[in-house]
Structures are given as structure tokens and as C-alpha cells.
């Protein structure tokens, strides 16, 4: 059992006691505790169950590498699963819950999986769920959904705030241990702009726990002094509680700062994401201790030797009264000595090496600890906590030579430099045989924009595991105990039989054992990346920080090749999981993206407009009256427009002015039809295609003057089309004298539509809008109701129609004048849905409905808008390709259901026979479908094979639930074919 | 996230400020070209692991298109230059050859 010692603890403040709960049970800790140290201090050794076998699990580590001790933290909207207790600071009132068990941590039904481990081998999911097919949906999925998964998902919206910030520096130091601080001092003194990030709240890393002398001072004193010096430098920024999560292209570093984690609801952002541009990133990220692979190495109480030392020194927590140390290196002896110093018992040090030697080993022996050379652990005894260990010869197959009672096992399999940041952007690794570890290959660093290195490793992250080596690299004198060589131990004992290997865990978080990796190798998995996916080794939230090297070694051994030949899996950012909130920052809710408003937006809003998003704009879909459904409102608006007069806010329409001596020539290239010969004062409908010949935009072009044209684009297309124009002008025809300006937001535009439109404009007064003065497809400028205006006589509804453009600042005035003066004519505003229905009644196409990026103008019977005279225009060459001229292409038709109902949107027309997948062949699809209040029936448009030639034919459109909709092929123009209504 | 310097406004811009435009120095084939020529213009793009010439637009900045010579493997940038350029300028070519002696040239 673990407990809090009466004295000591570098980081805790015993005067500040904090209360918290663990699965409802009230516990206490101290300010300065992590959740892990507080749980251990309160005697809570078992903190959860494992993912797959539901085995009891405890805290293994003391930092970011912890695989087991994940808890749910908080409640309701502030609940978050999978919080790592070893890196989460304790705060007053913290509510934590253990994970992966049902109904309770102590009694868990899923633990039966542990007895059935032979049924759950590596690749279990792949093997089991393949066949029979029905079994997945009806048998496996319901079971897996009930019992699998890491933690529960919060159901409510996150109430917390997150923010992002930018920073720039010459040198970014990732890691505030002694190596990082030394590097920061050097860069700071050289006058560089320096940012130092430390993921924990504390500075000094391991040295302050392990001790040693730096520059004549105790490590702790040196760290304090270094911090004071750094704080006094204006060019240096120190930021603790901030993890360097990733090193990206061209020295872009993501920093992840914990700001308000321990003070939920105080209004500060919970996390802050730093987006840092660094000239050079110094990776001072330290090293992580490796576990040893022996049977029962996952039982609560089996911990990393360094973690046992950390809990003791930093938080005055004893992880057990009797700790057996098992190791293959000298460093773990420090744990044994620290335990003795604290008055705790170390019954034995089990050292897998035959001849351990060095001052630490000597000291342990001198102080009376029994050192068992050449030995290992056969198995750990105990179920929910360690009760003892069985000892064997490391070289053998596990025959028990001795049993030792203990309640904690401190293990050390050597150390691995944290090479994540170094590797994220392409830094390469080299295998260090002496320490059995991958370390950065400093001759192959990640490189930046100028081809030079963007990262430099220092300290333990560079493979220097001793304090003296670390400080020597930094050019500072230091002294620490000498250490003898380590000996790699990948399996304990070396000849462990099946029964032991089945319980020797490599990856605690994913329940991957030595036997699983060996099975994968036998089944033909050679690539470490494939083995990772197959066995799940190194997956999930810890990404194998503890397990990877051990797993690689087992795989390499099974494949009979050296470890460097197997290589590592790819190190990908972030180093540890970061919150989605931080990634999102402030970009959510109303400011997720900008909202574009027309000058009449507030008017629409005040009238209860139902909005439709169009690009970044909001347009009124309809203006429902009290008690009126949207459908009824749309029908009313259409009928009123066709009977009286309707008003549409068309301000979102793209308006691009193209001007200059070569503007006509340029527009002839852009549009499929001729625009250069358009007379001044006239309007022409035009189509734009991309170089593939596919229709991309349409609109009315107006010749404003001899050298300038106004191009109307679709509402969503204005920016895209303006960019498209600029692309061709800047990159292809840069010698053409053409200037473009996107004036979309400079003008408000209103469509005045219906039989009484002219009466209304005449009442407003100031401009002659008679048939003679302003014929169809012409435009005039003047002053309407005292407002400078351009009036275009164009129609998208088939009615008598004027589109009036005024400077944006006059938009609301014009709109209000039209509404108030229009009352006498029955004027009503109408929305986008009425616009859509009315254009469909006329058989006019809509970009995005009739087109989808694969439709050419010819498919829509728009050959009349494709110039035969022009030698060239964008898309012309593509339209000559064989597939584009294929008579089998589906073509636009109108569709009328036989029973008058409305066809479902997007349904396909089936043809005879089946395709290779056993699906019905198809011969067409619906592109637009509406209820027409004018015709009092459903109308639709669609693309149908040989469509226009098949007028009158009835074809089948299968819908949902076996329904088949029958529709007759008709002309797409349903209303006023001869155009008598618009030509008055 | 890349940084590129816009040769027009001089700003060293983050990738989020830029819009990519694919391969640079394409020759447009219009009406009258063979199917093979048109296909190569329209679809056949270089995808080298190494030196590459690309179009970029300073979309959330000055709005200008420019060209960049970049190594797709290491992301080293050899230079950016005007979009009104038919082929890579001599100084860019020299910069690439200095860094990549084995480079076979841009064609």
C-alpha cells in the first residue's frame, strides 16, 4: 500500500490541504500534488482497469508517459475522460472517476476477459469480425460498444473558453530541466530572443530529484540561480505548464499551455495554444525510463523506479513499505538508496546483470541491501496489489529460487531519450548499442526553409543520461555518481515460457503482451508500423511512450534481426493529447466564421426572416408570417410576385467590374459566349467554364461603357470568380491591359419583380422605366426616389423585372422606399426559396443544382450560349474531347410526376438491367425539384440519357421504402414559354 | 506550416495566408492542340520528390500570384519570384544547383 510520509516532499505545501473525490470517495491531498501523488498519498494504489482484459491497474509513472492512471475529471459539461493523473494538478474539489469497469472498480464483470485471454490474441478484432458478415452488426458490435472504449464521452457543450496566441523567437527551448535551462542561459546571454517551455509546473527536471553538483552548487540551488538569471533577461520568456506539443514545417512549434485547469469556471481560458515561429528549437525533452517485461508487471504496485523516487522526493509519498528494485542498470539503485533514506525497506535489488559494479552499487551493498546479481523476476504475486515476487535466474526459464514479500516493485529497463520533437519534422535517429536506445543522429537534423537545421537536441534527449555528461555538453562543470554499463533485458527471465509471456505486458494501455507481438511476427508481420496496427502496441493516448522500445526489441528478436533494422514507428505530434478546445481556440459559435450582412440584413431580421446560409452570407429563405409555415410563406411570396410585385434583396450577387483596353478580349476568353460585341447599355447572360469545360458560374454581363463591363456572378461565387480572373490576368495574359475590381459589397441590389413592378418604380419617380426607354436586357443610370441608381431590366423569374443597384449606403433607404410605396401595389419581400421555385418554373438552371462540377453547358441545352465564332475561350478545347461530345451524355429535361406529387431531391432514374455490383442501372437523376404554387403541382428538372429526345416518356425513380416515383419527361420551361410576361 | 516570402509585398507569410495553385510554368494548350498536348497540359502534373516549382497566391495578403522553387522532400525554399516569368530565373536556378549538385534541371 502507498501512503504519505510525515515529512519531506519538495513540491507539496502541507499547510494547504485540498479535498477531492475518487469515484465518490472523499480524499485529501496537498497543494503541489498531482492527482497521482494525491491518490497514492491517500493509499489508492489501484486506480482503474485495463482496456481489454479489465485487469486491475495502478500508477506506473510520474509524468507524461503514464499509460494506466487515466481518470474522468469533473462532472456534467465539465466532465472530461482520460485525464492523466500524473500530469494533472490537484485542486480543491476535483472530482475524479475511475474508468473501464462495470459495475465498480473492485468488482468488474469485464474482468472475465482476463481469464479468456487465449480468445483475445493479437489481431483479435480482425480475425473475429470478418465472418460471418451478419455477426458484426448483431452480435459483436453491441457487445464491443458496451464494454470497449477508453472512458466516457461528455454529453454537454463545453462551457470553457480556449484561446490561441502567436509568438516568435530565435531560440525555443523545449524542456525546463538543467539541460534546457543551460541552453536558455547560453542563448539568452548571446542576445537571442528565447522562449523556454516546460510542460510541468516545475523547473529542473530529474536533476533536482536525483541530486548532483552543477557549477559548484547543488542541482536545486543551481536551478534556482539559473531561473533568476533567466527571469532578469528581457529577451527571455519562461513559460511553465506549457508543453511543446509538436515541431512542424519551417520551425513552427505548437505550445499547449494549461491556464485555468485547476480553477474551473473562473473565466480564464482553460487552455492556450501557442503558435510559435522559432528559428531553432532546442529539444531538451529529457528521457523516459523503460519498464521490464516480466509476468505480472502490470499489477498495481509495480512502478518505474524513477517514479517511485519522484513520489518519494517530490511529494513525500511512499509507494510501499517494502520495495523490491528490479533493474538492468545503476540508476535504479538511486531509488533503493532514497527509500532507505526515507526509512523504508528494500528487501532486495534484483539485478539482471551478472557483474554490476560502480559507486551506486557499492553504496547499496554498503548500506546492507541484498543485491541479487544475474537474477530476474519470475512473476509478481498479488491481484489488486503486489504482495510479493518470485525470483529466478535471469538466464533461465523462470524456476523460482526465492520468494520475497513486498508491496511495491520498482523496475528499470534503462532509459529512452524523448526524441519526439526531434523526429516530428524529419530528424533521424541512431541506435546507441551501449545504452540500448535510439538517440538523435545530429548529422541528420530536421531542416527548415533555408535547408539548415531547425532543431538541436541537448541533455538526456540527446542521449546524455548522466548529469556530468549533460552539463559537459553545455560547457558547465558538474559532478554526479559514476554509473556502470547497463545490459539490455527485453524479457525476464530470458527463456520465459508461454505461461509467463502471456502475462508479461509491453503496452499497459492497450493490454499488449510479449506473446502478442511474438504471435504477430509468426503470422508474418515484419513492418513495425503494421505490427503496431495489428497488435495495437503503441496506440491510444500514450502512443507507446513506455512500450515502444520493448515491443520493438521483442519483434526484432522474433524476426531474428537487430533492433535498428526494425526501426521505430513514426513519431507524430502532439507529444501528449491536447484538447480539441485548444485546437479550436476562439473559432466557435458566432465567430467560427465571419458573417456577411447585406445593408438590409437587420430589416430582414426584424421581419422574422428565416435564414439560409449562402457562402458566408445569410439570405432570407422566406418571411413567414405569424402562424404561417415556411412552405406556406414561400407559396404566398411566389403567388404575390406573379400577381402583384415582389421584392428580393439581391445584394449578395457578385459584382465584378472588368475595365481596360483589353477587357473585351479578356471577357471573350472567360465566357463561353461573346462579350466584346455587347453594345454599351445592354445586358447579356453568360456562362463561365473551367479549362475542363465544366460549367462553373453564370450571370448577366452589362456593358457599362466603351472600356468597362460589369460581371454579375452567383452569390457564392463572387470571390472565387474574382480570384479566377486575377489568376489568368496575373499568370497567363499578364501583358493584357485589364483591371478588375470586386464591388460586390459596394452596391446593394434589389430585384423588383412582377406585373406591377413598373407601376411601383414610376411611383418612386425620377427615371423613365417604360418599355420604350428601358427594354428587356438593357440598363440605365439615373436617380430613383432621389437615390443614384443603375436599373437593369433583367429577369430570373419570367416576370416583368428590374434589378436596381445603388451604393451600399443607400441600400436600406431604397429597400424601405420600395416596401412602403409598394404597399399600394401589394408589394411583399420574397426570399431565396421563392426565387428558386420561380426560376425552376421557367426552366432556368442554377449553378450548384443543375451543375456539380461534371456538367458542361451542352448537357443543359445551353449551346446557344456557346460561341462558334470565337477561336478560343476557357474550356473550349476540353469541349472537343470525345467524352464531351458523346451523344450518350445525360441532358437536361423537365420532369412532371404522373400523380402531381413532388419528386424527392437527388433521386436516380433506373434503367433496365444491373451493373457489375448487382445494382440497378441508372439513366438519369433529379437536379431540382419543387412544389409549384403557380402550376399547383410538383415540378422538377433532371439530367436524363437522351432526355430531350424522349419527351413524353414516363421513367421510374425509386425512392425510400420501396416507393417508385413515376415522372414524365417534359420541356424544362413550365411557365410562359413565349416570354410574354417579361416582355411587357 | 510553410513560410514563403511574397516577392510583391515582401511579407514572409504563413501558409494560412497563402493559397496553393499547383505546378508552375505550365504551357497552356487551347483549341487546335492535339489530344496528347491537351492531356499533358490539363492532367499530367509533375510530382517530384525534390525540387519543384509551384504557384502560390498571397490570397489573404496582397492578392498577388507568385512562384516558388521548393524541395518537396525537405521543404527547403530556394526562392520565390514573379508570376510573370516564363521559366525559372537564373539566380533561382543557380541557388538550386548550389544546394543540389545532382539536380537535373527543371524541364
Description:
The complex is a heterodimer of chains A (984) and B (107). Chain A is an alpha+beta fold. Chain A has 7 domains: 157 residues, 2Fe-2S iron-sulphur cluster binding domain, sarcosine oxidase, alpha subunit, N-terminal domain (Ubiquitin-like (UB roll)); 182 residues, FAD/NAD(P)-binding domain (3-Layer(bba) Sandwich), CATH 3.50.50.60; 133 residues, FAD/NAD(P)-binding domain (3-Layer(bba) Sandwich), CATH 3.50.50.60; 63 residues, Arc Repressor Mutant, subunit A, CATH 1.10.10; 146 residues, Probable tRNA modification gtpase trme, domain 1 (Gyrase A, domain 2, 2-Layer Sandwich); 91 residues, Aminomethyltransferase beta-barrel domains (Alpha-Beta Plaits), CATH 3.30.70.1400; 128 residues, Aminomethyltransferase beta-barrel domains (Elongation Factor Tu (Ef-tu), domain 3), CATH 2.40.30. Chain A contains 26 helices and 52 strands. In chain A, the strands form 14 sheets. In chain A, strands 9, 10, 13, 14, 15, 16 and 30 form a 7-stranded mixed beta sheet that branches. A 6-stranded mixed beta sheet of chain A has the order 43-44-45-42-36-46. In chain A, a hairpin with a 6-residue loop joins strand 4 and strand 5. In chain A, helix 5 runs parallel beside helix 7 and helix 8 packs parallel to helix 9. The mean pLDDT of chain A is 95. Chain B is of the alpha+beta class. Chain B has one domain: Folate-binding superfamily (Folate-binding fold, 2-Layer Sandwich), CATH 3.30.2270. In chain B, the strands form 2 sheets. In chain B, strands 3-4-5-6 form a 4-stranded antiparallel beta sheet. A two-stranded antiparallel ribbon of chain B has the order 1-2. Chain B is globular and about 40 Å long. At the A-B interface, helix 22 and helix 26 of A face helix 1 of B.
Amino acid at each position: 500500500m502507498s501512503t504519505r510520509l510525515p515529512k519531506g516532499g519538495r513540491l507539496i505545501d502541507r499547510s494547504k490541504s485540498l479535498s477531492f473525490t475518487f469515484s465518490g470517495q472523499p480524499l485529501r491531498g496537498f497543494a503541489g500534488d498531482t492527482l497521482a501523488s494525491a491518490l497514492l498519498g491517500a493509499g489508492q494504489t489501484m486506480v482503474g482497469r485495463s482496456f481489454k482484459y479489465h485487469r486491475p491497474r495502478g500508477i506506473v509513472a510520474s509524468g507524461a508517459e503514464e499509460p494506466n492512471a487515466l481518470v474522468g475529471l469533473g462532472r456534467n459539461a465539465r466532465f472530461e475522460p482520460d485525464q492523466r493523473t500524473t500530469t494533472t494538478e490537484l485542486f480543491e474539489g476535483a472530482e475524479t472517476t475511475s474508468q473501464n469497469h462495470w459495475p465498480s472498480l473492485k468488482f468488474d464483470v469485464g474482468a472475465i476477459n482476463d481469464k479468456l485471454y487465449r480468445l483475445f490474441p493479437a489481431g483479435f478484432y480482425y480475425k473475429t469480425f470478418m465472418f460471418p458478415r451478419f455477426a458484426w452488426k448483431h452480435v459483436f458490435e453491441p457487445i464491443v460498444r458496451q464494454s470497449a472504449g477508453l472512458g466516457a464521452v461528455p454529453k454537454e457543450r463545453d462551457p470553457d473558453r480556449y484561446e490561441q496566441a502567436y509568438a516568435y523567437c530565435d531560440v525555443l527551448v523545449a524542456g525546463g530541466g538543467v539541460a534546457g535551462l543551460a541552453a536558455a542561459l547560453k542563448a539568452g546571454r548571446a542576445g537571442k530572443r528565447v522562449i523556454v517551455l516546460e510542460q510541468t509546473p516545475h523547473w529542473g527536471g530529474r536533476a533536482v530529484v536525483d541530486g548532483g553538483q552543477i557549477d559548484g552548487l547543488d542541482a536545486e540551488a543551481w536551478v534556482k540561480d539559473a531561473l533568476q538569471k533567466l527571469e532578469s533577461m528581457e529577451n527571455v520568456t519562461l513559460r511553465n505548464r506549457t508543453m511543446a506539443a509538436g515541431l512542424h514545417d519551417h520551425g513552427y512549434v505548437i505550445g499547449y499551455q494549461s491556464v485555468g485547469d485547476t480553477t474551473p469556471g473562473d473565466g480564464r481560458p482553460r487552455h492556450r495554444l501557442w503558435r510559435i515561429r522559432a528559428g531553432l528549437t532546442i529539444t531538451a525533452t529529457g528521457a523516459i525510463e523503460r519498464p521490464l517485461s516480466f509476468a505480472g508487471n502490470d499489477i498495481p504496485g509495480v512502478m518505474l523506479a524513477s517514479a517511485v523516487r519522484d513520489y518519494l522526493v517530490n511529494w513525500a509519498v511512499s509507494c510501499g513499505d517494502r520495495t523490491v528494485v528490479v533493474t538492468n542498470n545503476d540508476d535504479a539503485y538511486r531509488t533503493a538508496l532514497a527509500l532507505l533514506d526515507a526509512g523504508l525497506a528494500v528487501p532486495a535489488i534484483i539485478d539482471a546483470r551478472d557483474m554490476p559494479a560502480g559507486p551506486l552499487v557499492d553504496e547499496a551493498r554498503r548500506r546492507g541491501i541484498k543485491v541479487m546479481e544475474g537474477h530476474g523476476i519470475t512473476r509478481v504475486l498479488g491481484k489488486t496489489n503486489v504482495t510479493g515476487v518470485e525470483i529466478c535466474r535471469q538466464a533461465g526459464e523462470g524456476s523460482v529460487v526465492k520468494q520475497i514479500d513486498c508491496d511495491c516493485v520498482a523496475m528499470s529497463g534503462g532509459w529512452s531519450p524523448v526524441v519526439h520533437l526531434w523526429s516530428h519534422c524529419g530528424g533521424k535517429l541512431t541506435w546507441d548499442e551501449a545504452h540500448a536506445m535510439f538517440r538523435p543522429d545530429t548529422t541528420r537534423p530536421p531542416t527548415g526553409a533555408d535547408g539548415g537545421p531547425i532543431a538541436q537536441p541537448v541533455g538526456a534527449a540527446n542521449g546524455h543520461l548522466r548529469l556530468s555528461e549533460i552539463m559537459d555538453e553545455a560547457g558547465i562543470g558538474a559532478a554526479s555518481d559514476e554509473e556502470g554499463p547497463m545490459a539490455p533485458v527485453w524479457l525476464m527471465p530470458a527463456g520465459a515460457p508461454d505461461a509467463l509471456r502471456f502475462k508479461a505486458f509491453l503496452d499497459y494501455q492497450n493490454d499488449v503482451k510479449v506473446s502478442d507481438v511474438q504471435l504477430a511476427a509468426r503470422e508474418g508481420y515484419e513492418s513495425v508500423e503494421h505490427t503496431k496496427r495489428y497488435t495495437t502496441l503503441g496506440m491510444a493516448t500514450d502512443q507507446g511512450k513506455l512500450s515502444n522500445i520493448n515491443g520493438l526489441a521483442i519483434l526484432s528478436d522474433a524476426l531474428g534481426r537487430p533492433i535498428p533494422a526494425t526501426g521505430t514507428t513514426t513519431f507524430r505530434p502532439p507529444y501528449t493529447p491536447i484538447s480539441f478546445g485548444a485546437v479550436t481556440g476562439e473559432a466557435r459559435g458566432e465567430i467560427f466564421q465571419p458573417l456577411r450582412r447585406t445593408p438590409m440584413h437587420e430589416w430582414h431580421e426584424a421581419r422574422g426572416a428565416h435564414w439560409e446560409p449562402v457562402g458566408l452570407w445569410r439570405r432570407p429563405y422566406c418571411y413567414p408570417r405569424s402562424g404561417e409555415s415556411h412552405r406556406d410563406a414561400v407559396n404566398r411570396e411566389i403567388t404575390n410576385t406573379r400577381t402583384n410585385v415582389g421584392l428580393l434583396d439581391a445584394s449578395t450577387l457578385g459584382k465584378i467590374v472588368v475595365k481596360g483596353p483589353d477587357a473585351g478580349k479578356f471577357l471573350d476568353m472567360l465566357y463561353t459566349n461573346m462579350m466584346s460585341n455587347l453594345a454599351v447599355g445592354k445586358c447579356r447572360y453568360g456562362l463561365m467554364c473551367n479549362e475542363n469545360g465544366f460549367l462553373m458560374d453564370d450571370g448577366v454581363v452589362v456593358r457599362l461603357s466603351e472600356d468597362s463591363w460589369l460581371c454579375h456572378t452567383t452569390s457564392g461565387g463572387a470571390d472565387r470568380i474574382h480570384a479566377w480572373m486575377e489568376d489568368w490576368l496575373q499568370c497567363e495574359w499578364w501583358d493584357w491591359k485589364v483591371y478588375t475590381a470586386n464591388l460586390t459589397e459596394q452596391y446593394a441590389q434589389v430585384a423588383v419583380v412582377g406585373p406591377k413592378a413598373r407601376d411601383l418604380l414610376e411611383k418612386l419617380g425620377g427615371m423613365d422605366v417604360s418599355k420604350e426607354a428601358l427594354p428587356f436586357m438593357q440598363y440605365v443610370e439615373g436617380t430613383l426616389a432621389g437615390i443614384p441608381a443603375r436599373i437593369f431590366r433583367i429577369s430570373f423569374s419570367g416576370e416583368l423585372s428590374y434589378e436596381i443597384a445603388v451604393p451600399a449606403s443607400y441600400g436600406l433607404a431604397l429597400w424601405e422606399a420600395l416596401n412602403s410605396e409598394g404597399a399600394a401595389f401589394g408589394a411583399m419581400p420574397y426570399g431565396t426559396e421563392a426565387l428558386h421555385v420561380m426560376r425552376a418554373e421557367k426552366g432556368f438552371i442554377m449553378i450548384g443544382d443543375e451543375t456539380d462540377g461534371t456538367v458542361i453547358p451542352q448537357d443543359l441545352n445551353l449551346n446557344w450560349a456557346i460561341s462558334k465564332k470565337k477561336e478560343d475561350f476557357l474550356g473550349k478545347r476540353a469541349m472537343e474531347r470525345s467524352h464531351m461530345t458523346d451523344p450518350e451524355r445525360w441532358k437536361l429535361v423537365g420532369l412532371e410526376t404522373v400523380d402531381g406529387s413532388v419528386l424527392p431531391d437527388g433521386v436516380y432514374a433506373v434503367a433496365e438491367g444491373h451493373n457489375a455490383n448487382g445494382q440497378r442501372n441508372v439513366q438519369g437523376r433529379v437536379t431540382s425539384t419543387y412544389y409549384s404554387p403557380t402550376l399547383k403541382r410538383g415540378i422538377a428538372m433532371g439530367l436524363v440519357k437522351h432526355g430531350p429526345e424522349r419527351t413524353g416518356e414516363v421513367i421510374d425513380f425509386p425512392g425510400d421504402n420501396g416507393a417508385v416515383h413515376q415522372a414524365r419527361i417534359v420541356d424544362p420551361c413550365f411557365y410562359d414559354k413565349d416570354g410574354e410576361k417579361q416582355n411587357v | 506550416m510553410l513560410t514563403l516570402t511574397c516577392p510583391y509585398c515582401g511579407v514572409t507569410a504563413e501558409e494560412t495566408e497563402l493559397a496553393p495553385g499547383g505546378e508552375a510554368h505550365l504551357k497552356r494548350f487551347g483549341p487546335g492542340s492535339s489530344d496528347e498536348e491537351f492531356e499533358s497540359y490539363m492532367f499530367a502534373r509533375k510530382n517530384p520528390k525534390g525540387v519543384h516549382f509551384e504557384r502560390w497566391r498571397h490570397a489573404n495578403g496582397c492578392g498577388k500570384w507568385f512562384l516558388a522553387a521548393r524541395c518537396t522532400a525537405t521543404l527547403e525554399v530556394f526562392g520565390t519570384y514573379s508570376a510573370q516569368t516564363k521559366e525559372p530565373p537564373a539566380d533561382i536556378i543557380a541557388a538550386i544547383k548550389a544546394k543540389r549538385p545532382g539536380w537535373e534541371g527543371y524541364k
